[in-house]
Amino acid sequence: MFVDQVILKVRAGRGGDGAISFLREKYVPRGGPAGGNGGKGGNVIAIALSQKKTLYDVAIQKVYEASNGEPGKGKNQFGKDGADVVLVVPVGTQIIDQKDNQIIADLTEDKQEVIIARGGRGGRGNSSFATSTNQAPRIAEKGELGEAREIRLELKLIADVGISGFPNAGKSTLLSVVSAAKPRIADYPFTTLHPNLGVVNHHDQQFIMVDVPGIIEGASRGAGLGLEFLRHIERTRLILHCVDLSQFYSENNPYDDFLTLRREFEAYSSSLAAKPFFVVATKLDLIKAAQNFNEFKSTLEQQGIPVFGVSSLTKEGMNQLLDAIIEFLKNAPEIFTKEILSQSKNTPLSPIRSRHYRFSTPFLDRLIAEIDWNSDNALSIFNQKLVHFDFLKYFSAIQPGSIVEIENLNFIWTGKRLEAHKTTSK
């Protein structure tokens, strides 16, 4: 079942509470505080996979919750981190916050992943609060709450060329002829009920084509299937407007049908209406279509609009159309409709309070987990990796001496590198 839009609630796990404990061992007088930190709450993560074609699997469940981190324990034992929850979605999925309609992520690549809701930080145990003046603190932090939000997932298929037109204009038949796609084809309106993708190979060149359900006059006001499926050609570099010249299903002048189609595009989106397009006059194997073609082509070419006449039955005009598409795509830039995200959503460095920042990316979180922090050279290794993976650029805007929190660890930014932060005042 094809599903391209779904609304979900996601809740990340709460961080585990820090422990208050003191070391009590034989022959170890004044053992000192030994309360470990709580585990981090699990994240809710989305990952895009190219083999996924629909949001149906994630739409079955309406609420996704990651597990909480476990509390810290005595003997400086950290609590176990909560397990993540992973939503597997198709490439081309946009994740939108329902509250403010801001785009959280636009997953346009295979195996691209993003944290939708971040788990709460584990609370620090009392051993983290020991100072020279308070060597036996009886204080520990509660774990932070995980993020909770309502999100909307919208699938926008990624293709080079989009096919649009009225019902029974020959869109799906065209796709089936130029590619190996097998869309449903019949001689009644609205045979196509969901988008179809096909890979076109022509003269050692390859591109992806998508066919969307037919549009009728008034679609912008909800007539027919509406304009909902036009989102699937928003990412294309070229649009093909298919116009049936046979007048078999419509007695309208084909040129009037073309104008109606353009009006519906403009009603949906000015940016979509501004995309480059070719007009494909279909069904030239029918007598009426052949009679209408010359006048139709002349009218549009006077306006500088490229027109191609084709027959999916006899393959007439197909090579010329595909040649023109390939030539156009050679010089057309890759286009993705990516709204500009706010600064807070666009950087992994976020302020907590004055001169105190949290820094997090999925990659860096894994990097932290891989380092043995009990070793003497752990901090040196960590800084080397920050330089190697070009993470230090994010710290250039903050003042030296600021606290940088990464996972459950706090560091001091010196202006050149991160140093260990022994104590943190609340």
Automatic annotation (TrEMBL):
GO biological process annotation, one example: ribosome biogenesis
Q: Where is the OBG-type G domain?
A: 159-330
Q: Which family does it belong to?
A: Belongs to the TRAFAC class OBG-HflX-like GTPase superfamily. OBG GTPase family.
Q: Show the InterPro entries listed in the entry.
A: G_OBG (IPR031167), GTP-bd (IPR006073), GTP-bd_Obg/CgtA (IPR014100), GTP1-OBG_CS (IPR006074), GTP1_OBG_dom (IPR006169), GTP1_OBG_dom_sf (IPR036726), OBG_GTPase (IPR045086), P-loop_NTPase (IPR027417)
Its encoding gene is what? obg
Q: Where does Mg(2+) bind?
A: S172, T192
Cofactor(s) demanded? Mg(2+)
GO CC list: cytoplasm
| Subunit architecture | Monomer.
Q: What is this protein called?
A: GTPase Obg
Q: What is its main location?
A: cytoplasm
Its localization reads: Cytoplasm
Pinpoint the Obg domain residues: 1-158
Q: What class of enzyme is it?
A: hydrolase
Q: What does this protein do?
A: An essential GTPase which binds GTP, GDP and possibly (p)ppGpp with moderate affinity, with high nucleotide exchange rates and a fairly low GTP hydrolysis rate. Plays a role in control of the cell cycle, stress response, ribosome biogenesis and in those bacteria that undergo differentiation, in morphogenesis control.
Q: Which GO terms describe its molecular function?
A: GTP binding; GTPase activity; magnesium ion binding; ribosome binding
| CDD domains from the UniProt entry | Obg (cd01898)
Keywords of the record: Cytoplasm, GTP-binding, Hydrolase, Magnesium, Metal-binding, Nucleotide-binding
Q: Which SUPFAM superfamilies match?
A: Obg GTP-binding protein N-terminal domain, P-loop containing nucleoside triphosphate hydrolases
Q: What is its EC number?
A: 3.6.5.-
Chain positions recorded as GTP binding sites: 165-172, 190-194, 211-214, 282-285, 311-313
